[in-house]
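Suppose you are handed a protein chain with no further information: no name, no annotation, nothing but its sequence. What can you learn? This example shows the usual starting point.
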Amino acid sequence: VSHFVALQIGVLLKGVCYLAEEIFHLQSRHHGSFWRALSACVPLHQHLPLLLISGSAYVALFDGDGWQLGLHLVLASLGQLLTLMLGLH
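A reasonable first move is to predict its three-dimensional structure. Written in structure tokens, the prediction is:
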């Protein structure tokens, strides 16, 4: 379950990185619409349901306090960012 959460976090982080680049092209590519750029870069309609399901299962199966859960999610996010930065994805 944590693997699926990490993969979905990775997809969302990759979309956020794409969005950071697309901000400079709002006028030329997206007619000045931030929401068009967001929907083009972050595929929420595809990955949000799986992120919610796997995230809910992860929270339900997690045996610990909220601090450890947050730490696990931060570490999964950092691992996915490192994978993206090194081009290993």
